[in-house]
Amino acid sequence: MKNNRALVYTLSVLGVSFLYSSVYFFIPLKEMAEICLVPVSVEERTFCGIPMSMVFLSFYMFLPLITAVVLQKVVYKEPLRDIGFTFKWTPWYFFAWFAPLVISVMALGMAVLMPGVSYDPQMSGYLEKMRGMLPQEQFEAIQKQIEAVPFNPVIGITQALIAGATLNAFFAFGEEAGWRGFFLKSVSSMNFFRVSVFTGAVWGIWHFPAIIQGHNYPDYPVAGVFLMTIWCILLTPPMIYAVKKTGSIIAAAVFHGTINATAGITVMLTKGGTDLTAGVAGFNSILALVVFNALLVVYDKYYAKEKVIFTQKSH
Question: pTM to 2 decimals?
Answer without folding.
Answer: 0.94
